[in-house]
Design brief:
Number of strands: 8
Largest sheet: 3 strands, mixed
Strand order of the largest sheet: 3-5-4
Helix content: 25-40%
Strand content: 25-35%
Low-confidence stretches: none
Oligomer: single chain
Number of helices: 5
Length: 224
C-alpha cells in the first residue's frame, strides 16, 4: 500500500503539471508500530504556453485546437501539461480526420519546445503537432465471403455506409462490431473474422473484403 500511496501522491502532482516530481518513502519501525515518511521533490510545474499545427490545410488550426483536452495557460485556465492528455489528444485528432474520409491521416511528430519562466518559476511548453492529412476517400462497397449462416444481404444491412459516402471510420467499425455481435449472440463464439480495407489511390475509393470462417455453434455443457 505504501507503493500505491507513492503513486497516488505522484499522480496528484502530475495532474497539476509537475512532470518532474519525485516521491519516495521510508519506514521506521518501533516495537508496536511503524512511522512512514514520504519525501517529495516537487520540481517545477510545466504549463502549455501555446499549441500550434503544421501540415494541415483541410482542417483549420482553430478546429483542431477545439478537439484538444489540453488548454493553453491563460486567465481562466491553468494550462497544466499532462502527458496522458497529449496521447488522448493525438487520438482525438486522428479520429476527427478518419471520420471525414482522411484514412491516411497521421501525426508525424509532436515537437515540444520548453523554456524556463523565471518570474513564475515554471517551465513553459510550446507544442506543435506535425500533421499529414492525405486525400479524402469515399466508400465503394463491402463484400462478404465464407458466410452461410447469415445472408450477405443481412450482414450488409448492418454496415451503415452506402456506396459513395465519405468513408467514416467510426461507422465502419460500428458495422464490423454489429456483424460479429450477430454471430456471437447466436452462439457462434469461435468464428474467425478478417476484414481487409483496400484503397484505390486513383479514384480515392476504399473497399472492404470481409472474410468469415464459420465454426460450430457453442453450447452450454454444464452450470455449477
Amino acid at each position: 500500500k505504501v507503493s500505491l500511496d507513492e503513486r497516488a501522491i505522484r499522480d496528484a502532482y502530475l495532474k497539476k503539471g509537475y512532470t518532474n516530481v519525485k516521491v519516495s518513502s521510508s519506514v521506521e519501525k518501533s516495537e508496536e508500530s511503524v512511522s512512514i515518511t514520504f519525501t517529495v521533490s516537487e520540481g517545477r510545474s510545466t504549463v502549455v504556453k501555446s499549441i500550434t499545427f503544421s501540415g494541415n490545410s483541410v482542417v483549420t488550426s482553430k478546429t483542431l485546437k477545439g478537439l484538444l483536452s489540453m488548454k493553453e495557460v491563460g486567465i481562466f485556465t491553468k494550462g497544466a501539461f499532462q502527458a496522458s492528455q497529449l496521447e488522448a489528444d493525438k487520438v482525438a485528432i486522428l479520429e476527427y480526420y478518419n471520420n471525414r474520409g482522411y484514412i491516411d491521416a497521421a501525426i508525424l511528430d509532436v515537437v515540444k519546445t520548453e523554456t524556463y519562466n523565471e518570474e513564475n518559476n515554471s517551465n513553459e511548453l510550446v507544442i506543435e503537432f506535425v500533421i499529414q492529412e492525405g486525400p479524402q476517400y469515399t466508400f465503394k462497397d463491402i463484400t462478404f465471403t465464407g458466410n452461410t449462416i447469415f445472408s450477405t444481404e443481412e450482414l450488409r444491412g448492418l454496415v451503415k455506409l452506402n456506396s459513395g459516402d465519405v468513408f467514416n471510420m467510426s461507422k465502419y467499425q460500428a458495422g464490423l462490431v454489429a456483424v460479429t455481435d450477430l454471430y456471437f449472440e447466436s452462439g457462434y463464439t469461435s468464428n474467425y473474422f478478417n476484414p481487409q480495407v483496400s484503397k484505390n489511390t486513383e479514384t480515392k475509393e476504399s473497399s472492404v473484403a470481409f472474410t468469415i470462417v464459420e465454426r460450430p455453434r457453442s453450447h452450454i455443457e454444464n452450470i455449477v
